[in-house]
C-alpha cells in the first residue's frame, strides 16, 4: 500500500503547512476508509495521486466526521465516497438512505395533487379505513387499485352518503395507493374549484385551467353538488371536462352528500326557476358512464376522531 502518511507529510512540508495541519494529517492517514480505498486501488492510482488528491482526502474525512456529529455538511443528505478518476483521487457524493427515503416520499406526494384538501385526506391509507357500514365501498376501492391499468378504462366510484362518513378519506386512500404505483391523481374540491374557475374568467385562463386537469390519469371531484349552482360552471366547465374524460375513457371519481338522483335534480335547476333537465341529463349521463354509485353508511368519522382526542 502507498505510504499515505509520508507522502502527505512531504506535500504539507513543501507547502510549509505541516505545523498547522498536523491534526489533519493524523486524521487522514489513520482513517480506515481512506486506507482501505488506497489498498484496493493502489494499482490504479498514479505515483503522486496522494499528494495531488490530499485536498480530496481531507474533504472526505471531514465530511464523514460532520455527518457522524450531525453537523451541517457540504451536501446535506449525501455521503462522500472516494473514487479513482483518471488515475487520481476524486470524491463523489451519494444519497444517504434517509435522503433516498425523503426523495421517494416527496416524489409520491407530487403524484397526488390535493390542494384545498384536509390533512387526513393526504395521510389517508386504505389499510386504516374502518369498514363498518362501508364494506362495499372499501371492497370497490381495493378492487379498483388492484385492477387499474393505465391506458385501459376502469369505471371509477361515485361515493354518496351523509357528511363525515368517510367518502373523502376513502378517495384519499385510493389516490395514495395509486401513487405507490407511480400513478398521478388530481383531486378537486368542487365548491372551491367552482369559485376559482369563476375568478379565472377575469384573466381569460378558464380553458388553460381545464386543459391542465382534464387528461390526468385519475381525476376526483370531491363534494360535487356542494357548490353554489351555476349553469355556466355546470355546462362550460364540468360538462367539458366530463365529456373529454368520457371520450378518452379516463378514470374519474366523485364524492357527494347527494345521491345521483338528487344530484340530477340539483343540476336541473336553472336561473330564475328555469328547468334545465335536458342539460342535467347530459351531465349525469357522463357521470354514470364514468363512475359506479356506492352508498357509504356508518358513524361520523370526524366525531370519532374528535372523541379520541378529547
UniProtKB/TrEMBL annotation:
Species name: Schleiferilactobacillus perolens DSM 12744
A GO biological-process term: DNA replication
Domain IstB-like ATP-binding: 124-303
Sequence ranges assigned to domain Primosomal DnaI N-terminal in this UniProt record: 1-93
Protein name: DnaI protein
Record GO terms (molecular function): ATP binding
Signal peptide: none
